Amino acid sequence: MGMQAGVRAKAALWAGLACAFSATAEGRGHQGLTSVDTKGVEEALRPPPGRLLLVHLWASWCRPCVSEWPSLAEWLRHPRDRRLDVVTLAIDEADTRPAAEAVLGRLGRLPGRVLAASLDDCYPALRALDPEWDGSLPTTILVGADGHLLLAEHGLTRLDALEKALGAAAKDPIRASDPKRSGSERGDP
Of 14, 138, 150, 159, which has the fewest beta carbons less than 10 angstroms from its beta carbon? Predict the structure, then answer.
């Protein structure tokens, strides 16, 4: 609970800035956020059969999250592997979701599902997927077609590491989706 309180404190600190930021955004050309509860988060984090799942966690009040979005959004629009499904999850409470909408509005249309949930709604499912997730934002997670964790980038997304993990999954989908055989469940070099 202490970590959740810390994340909430950061959210409160940045909420004013984020809401002011949203007032200047045009908000055109994107699909908008879909709010989900605990069940919705759990469903979104299950990869469809035979497909890879990329989950990007961010928040409107997180400066590194917002600053990395333009390059990440461009990369997401041109994925290396067509078996890749994308879920972006804004960890924003109801009062900061307009700011998240504003950030997305500047990015244009993103591939995949664009969701928002409270920390309480997403924390259990995210910890089940990545037991080492400590609430860091941004975080980018790559899940194999069988549900195994292939890569977890806590902090800024290293696109080179993501490319490498996708390349390994494309070359050897069985090895890449079985952390006992891949040698590096976390994707660390």
Answer: 159
- Distance CA(119)–CA(155), nearest Å, equals 17
pLDDT, tens digit, for every residue of 65-99?
999 999 999 999 987 667 889 999 999 999 999 99
Calculate the alpha carbon distances from 51 to 79, 83, 129, 146 in Å: 13, 5, 16, 8
Domains, the chain, ordered by start: 2-182 (3.40.30.10)
Q: Is 29 left (phi over 0), alpha (psi -120 to 50) or beta?
A: left
Give SS3 for 78.
coil
Distance CA 188, CA 45 (A): 21
The residue among 95, 84, 101 whose CA lies nearest residue 27 is 101
3-state secondary structure of 55: strand
Render the burial of 60-85: b for 16+ CB within 10 Å, e for the rest.
bbbeebbebbeebbeebeebeeebbb
**Backbone torsions φ then ψ of 59, nearest 5 degrees:** -150, 150
Q: Are 141 and 151 in contact (CB under 8 A)?
A: yes
Please give the angle made by the CA atoms of 120, 19 and 6, to the nearest 5 degrees.
35
Q: pLDDT per residue over 135-177, tens digit each? A: 999 999 999 988 889 999 999 999 999 999 998 888 765 544 4
